Amino acid sequence: MKKTTSSLIVLVAIVSVAIFAGCVEEKISAAEDVNRAVSLMETGNTRIEKINWESGAYSDAKAKLAASEVDYEEALKILDNATTDYDDEKDAIGTAKVMCSYSLDGIAAFQNLTICLEHLDKVSAYMEGDDVASMRSELELAEDALNDTLPFASAAKEKCFSIDADTIPVESRSGLLEDRISIEQSEKIILEFGVLMSGMHPFIDGMEHMLKATEYVEKEEWHSAELELDKCSADFSESKDILADLKNSEFAEISVPAIAIHGILTKMLEALPHLEAGCRYADRGNFKKADEEFNKIPVF
Questions:
Q1: CB of 286 closer than 8 Å to CB of 250
Q2: Which of 298 and 214 is assigned the larger pLDDT?
Q3: Whole-number Å distance between alpha carbons of 58 and 66
């Protein structure tokens, strides 16, 4: 979720007006506190924007998110304790506190999403070694982390949209709009990750049936192999149907793996009828027909 600085700049402008007003009339101003808070918020924002979300760069993301979390927490403490006699400053402080709050929710969402992505990478790694049990375990951990992500994203959205755009300076409205769009995009990609993972469950189930079928073929237990291949076909078809719409996702993080897995499934589903028929013929002792079916399998 990209954070903007235009709203923060306007907050500084508002409190600057209060400083000059204070030269005419003795009143308490929170200008210094607000400036300190805004500075911390800008630092936290800049650090988040520098995060590298590429696969495998999660240690850097975790460190930057943790540091930015501290920045926003300290900014919020300053704002909570700020005192002013100026209505404009009171409004600015109120808006800044909401911005801090939804930024902290956004950080918490991304901290959980980072954990989710780590486990998804491990799912792919275990797939290379056909370790189905570990794939399932990592997928469950990824889902747990994703489930922890959505409430924070929803809370950030609710708080951001709670700000009445008509009550803030015109110069701040574009920044607020950008934050709203960014938060909605974040919520959408989280939901799509959920769909992606739901499609991986039958994929892993089908993969397990395929591995069992391979073991049966090696032992020439043809009927048992055919039964496993039939189960495999059902699982792969379910997975393919779930992933189909995600191929056109606006997020590369979703569309790329969806396209890759969908392509694998398409090829497997083309091969499975010939594998099943070959095992059926072999079980009947007709190995000539079995070989004909096996030779029809597309080259991967």
A1: no
A2: 214
A3: 12
